[in-house]
Amino acid sequence: MPRTTSTEEMLQIEAIVAGLAHGAGIATIEAELERLHGHKPNRRTLQRRLHKLVADWCARLTPVHVQVQQHLFFSIHATA
Question: Which of 22, 39, 47, 78 is most buried, by CB atoms within 10 Å?
Answer without folding.
Answer: 47
